[in-house]
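tool=predict chain=A
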Amino acid sequence: MGEGDEGREGSESRERGSRNEMAPEGMADLAMAVPAAGGGSRMGGVRKAGIHLLGEPLLLHALRPLLAHPRVGKIAVALHPEEAGDPPTWLRELGDARLMVVAGGDTRGASVKAALAALEPLPDFVGVHDGARPLVDRGVLDRCLQVAEGGRGGVAGWRVVDTLKETDAEGLVIDTPDRSRLWRAQTPQIFPGSWLRRAYWEEGASVSRATDDASLVSALGLPVEMVEGGAWNLKVTHPDDVAVAEHLLRRPDGGASVR
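tool=predict ok
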């Protein structure tokens, strides 16, 4: 099988998985906020929403598992303000009534907050998934949702395997943290809906500085549990990440065996 054949087979597999299994009445109780408004400063100025993987938009790869999940109702995508008023043609042509587009903010937190506002009234559960994470699968979503149903925030992640070093301002090592209790946080992150409303609208919440949603929820004293995500549930951040993501997506299983 040639490389092109593998790509086509992987694409067909992902397309089959993108078809929504219609939720039973009353079971679309999960809404998703998708921040995708980044300016692409670490991608050489190319906005991530415009990056293509295997000929398809990065954001489309991130949205597919959400659109296919039977519990997902509304999805709010926060795009760069210049794109939100005239969304990409492919996004409009999806023709899915659950999708809405909002103008994002200057920071990830501001974009998530704008998406959450568009999702009001929030359902029982609300999740956030980065628009630059194209390799998440149904299993990760299910595990995070199961934790949220049990009364905790469910945060996808992966245990740290590298030795970590803390340095001072000059780059000199001052500490070696114990990695046995450390995780790399990923998305999706799923919570009871009222928790995210409190986290983002609580007076004094550090929304502009938040790099993920769990940190804001934890600041309220609410329990957050790490959930096994995937070793390769990467966030496309640097140009080299594009080649890695395409390599994994080119597999017939869409990279599922390495997650």
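The CA atoms of residues 129 and 187 lie 5 Å apart. The chain has one domain: 3-258.
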